[in-house]
Amino acid sequence: MLKGVEEISATKKRLKFEIPADVVEEEIQKALREIQKEAKIPGFRPGKAPLSIIEKKFGQNAISDVLEKLVSESYEKAIKETNLKPLLPPMAEDAIDIKRKEPLSFELVVEVRPEVENLNYENIEVEEISTEVKDEDIERVIKGLCEESGTYEPAEEPTQNNDLVIFDYKTDTGKEVKDFVYKIGAGPFPEDFSKALEGRKKGETFTFTVDFPEDSIAEFAGKKVNFEVTIKDIKRKQPVPYEEIHKEYGYETTEEFRNDIRQRLENAKKEQAIEKQKFDILKKLLDTHEFELPEGLVEMEIKRISEELESMGLNVVEHMDKITERAKRNVKAYILLEIIGEKEGVTVSEEEIKQEVINIARKYSITPQGVIQYYMSRDGSLSALRNSVFERKVFDILLNKAKIVKRTEEESKEVSQ
Question: Of the candidates 162, 210, 212, which has an alpha carbon nearest to the alpha carbon of residue 186?
Fold first, then answer.
């Protein structure tokens, strides 16, 4: 039973418990009787062995089970009674043991969600963002698609950047290669190599020297290599004609193609505008509310970010200050959004979780089961999915409550400075 709550800090509480000896003993006897029903003791029929023998053989098991049960039940009841919002599982600073015929006294330290005073999330000013798609935007996309969809055709002119060149080469290191295919400007050789290939004609033989850096992915890394190259063929990408490009993408007419591009660009701009407004709202919430952050949660987030960056090959030690700041920002955002969601009665149903799984599966062209397996293997649960849906619903509320303001281009620049 909860005896008291000691405030260690705004985010950490010490819960003090004491369970009467008779209650502890009653639970132990109950546990022993349950064991008695199933225990197989030589010389006795199942369930008929004396309780004294059961206690002698299984007493410690029963005590361990009772200890776990009483601590867990006492903690859960105390959380409901005190209306605390735990962020992490409780920790016992000292060992908890049952001593027969004595009250069970123990303390648990729990990190809790801090109170946020004067929380205000209504009428946050966010800028209206234009989602207009201009004709030149569509033209730019179509011309880009014409280039991307083009094919490489033989060229008689001298080589230039992005040409495909087929050549033989040999080096002073003993390397000799025939019919090597290389896209000028695309690597993996250094830029100097590509530059040496530009302006050359079919059939031309020439020599040049290239210094390969130590970190080059080419086999000549760290070496100074002399090349002799003979150009055998040059191919240049020829774009699909503007008036034909719609057929490449399965459209009957250019106008139908343009309309679809316009719709896709509008949708993309709307999504970008919403994300920008969400970012601005969150930034203002973070800037205008100060409260103590839970140390344990910040440490967990620092660890998560560090592991993520390490997997990308970054030196975590060199960036620890930035990692810590980012972790604090993330934790602060999490707490604010959770409190706002709670105040607004935001919940996430199982049906919404299923729909989120389907949406992710479609986006990345994988099966729904694959999505579930990914999150289960990474986190052991679908809590990250649930949090994602929860936060999105909270942001929808924040946007609905926001004050959309229209600014001139000059005013927008002043605000962003």
Answer: 162
